[in-house]
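Batch manifest, entry 17 of 40.
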Amino acid sequence: MGRWMGTPRTKWGQKILGKVDAEVERLVNGSYLKAKQILENNMDLLHNLAQTLVEQEVVSTEEFQMMLVEFKTKTADFEVLGSDRRREDLPFQKMPMDFSI
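Output type: structure tokens
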């Protein structure tokens, strides 16, 4: 009983909260991997943009659009993220199973 004191009660059951946690993990992991892929595929553009920002502090829309063409930016197709959590694809393998304190 003392364990639950001070923690707000939820109208959702543990089963639903577990499903929500799994869905959030799936979305975060998939989004992380997709963002990493996009950055890796456009590393030359990223370095050029960083250098330009160091020198100028600001990049106009037109300058950025020209960089996109100059570096033949590779876009990512829109796709629905898969149904699994993809833990094995992450660089940090040991994910805590229980996030409660």
